[in-house]
Amino acid sequence: MITVLGATGNVGSQVVRELTAAGVDVRAVARRPAVAAPGVRPWPGDLGDRAFLRRAFDGAAAAFVLLPFDVTAPDHAAHQARLGESVVAALRDAAVPRVVALSSLGAEVPGGPGLAATGYLGSLHDQEARLATLDAYVTRVRPGLFLESFLWSADAMRAHGVHADSVDPDVALPMVATRDVGRAAAAALLDPDAPDVVEVQGAADRTVPDVVAALGPALGLPDLAYVRVPDGEMERLLRGAGLSADGARLHVAMNRAFNEGRVRAHGPRGAADGVLTVEEWAAGVAG
Ligand SMILES: NC(=O)c1ccc[n+]([C@@H]2O[C@H](COP(=O)([O-])OP(=O)(O)OC[C@H]3O[C@@H](n4cnc5c(N)ncnc54)[C@H](OP(=O)(O)O)[C@@H]3O)[C@@H](O)[C@H]2O)c1
Q: Which positions fall inside the NmrA-like domain (predicted)?
């Protein structure tokens, strides 16, 4: 049996699918219960509740763990530390021998004061450090930017006919579909020789305008354009969209790290990398 955190999310749901297809029973953890299915036992509860999590991990041969974001949290680092410490303490309490952790490209870079160096990714650096204190075999899965993160802006794209962000238009990034991230994580869970770090880069590095050009028609917006807004303006737009001031600041700081090349893959593309191209992914969104 393997315990999967974030089991109803983009990546976790794919991990559950892959594991059950391989005949592995799963405890599916999320606050809103996962749908019960053959091999899937919903395990509803909050990652901040260490005792609950310990029960979720008890007897597990392995665990898939992640640190969910809450872009409305007034203090992102404190929110992530609270959940991250709870997850690591519960893994230790239950003596889980094998852990595959969802992290990110750029998590090797310390966030520095106020997580200014890499924005949101700084809290994943800190979580990798916590996981390293476990007496367990830990694999960190470090994907590139999720293509699904563009869908968060779909309503704004429809309302304004543009996609606004603060990534420079000529910066090519390792964009990856979460389907491929989940596959790589499940493969690591099932591989007794998986490495300490698995990068998942996506089929090719692509720019934000590339994604917008593919996604626009899929959303019924053939003229969708990308607008690179100044950093301060982007923070204002994000706050208007419901992010906390801290969340907006960290989003823009992360984009600055993309623009300046501080978030990047370190290895060549390999077997763990995504295969879905941006265009194939967008066709799936249209479907
Ligand atoms: N977006 C990107 O481009 C990107 C790139 C690289 C890495 N990442 C990393 O990927 C992770 C997010 O993965 P994802 O996209 O698969 O997440 P997601 O789709 O947002 O799903 C989050 C999952 O966690 C559960 N969850 C949220 N808060 C919880 C809590 N307090 N207690 C228990 N369960 C909780 C959610 O279900 P409930 O809400 O029902 O609890 C859901 O199952 C983040 O750590 C992020 O750093 C993201």
A: 2-233
